[in-house]
Amino acid sequence: MGFTWYNQFDLGLQASYTFDWWGKQRDAVEAAMDQAHAAQADRSAAALMLAAAITDTYFGWQSDQNRLVLLREKEMAVEWEVRVAAARVRAELESDYERHNSDLALAAAREQIAALEGSAKLRVIALAALVGKSISELPPLVPKPLPSFPGVLPDNVKIDLISRRADITASRWRVEAAEKNLASARAEFFPDVTV
């Protein structure tokens, strides 16, 4: 019928227990946990740095837009000065030198505008790269006035805020893991008791 019958079987059972008298295994486990915590804190630090870079780039773009508004106003004022200087030269009230100075001031204002427009475009490209999208996939960026800053820190700012930074927390976990690894390595030299 194709069946195989066994009437005899072997059962083997072995047990062993190692006493952790010196805390070698406990320290190794705690060191591994501290290293995992440090890796998690590093991940948080990387996310925080990315968020800070995105914020810095966005507010840099906003700053460029606000400065462009001011420079365009300056350009209009300098164009008016050029027209006034040209009229004064035609009326022979001033020398041609004054008109050339006005032309140079207008060229400098336009150069600053071109530089800021280029900076704004580069910031949009950097923003797209930081968020991992193409420029066309970014939502439309709308210039807004920059928020006002009172210039003083709030009264409730304390040194505890620094200790909450993810990179500092990761460093603390690494130090603790190194201490546990050291204790575990030190315990390697003590005798083992295995039953």
What's the short version?
The chain is mainly alpha-helical and 195 residues long. The chain contains four helices and two strands, in the order βααααβ.
Topology of helices and strands:
Blueprint lengths: L17 E2 L4 H67 L5 H36 L28 H4 L2 H22 L5 E2 L1
Antiparallel strand pairs: 1-2
Please describe the structure with a list of short key phrases separated by commas or semicolons.
single chain; about 65% helix; about 200 residues; mainly alpha
Radius of gyration: 35 Å
Number of domains: 1
In N-to-C order, the SSE pattern is EHHHHE
Largest sheet: 2 strands, antiparallel
Strand arrangement within the widest β-sheet reads 1-2
Mean residue pLDDT: 83
Tell me what the CATH architecture is: Up-down Bundle
Oligomer: single chain
* Residue windows where pLDDT falls under 50 for at least 5 positions: none
The CATH superfamily label reads Outer membrane efflux proteins (OEP)
What percent strand? Answer: under 5%
The CATH topology is given as Outer membrane efflux proteins (OEP)
Helix content: 55-70%
- Overall SS class: mainly alpha
How far the N terminus sits from the C terminus, by CA atoms, comes to 48 Å
Number of strands: 2
Helical segment count: 4
For this structure, what is the CATH class?
A: Mainly Alpha
Approximate shape = elongated
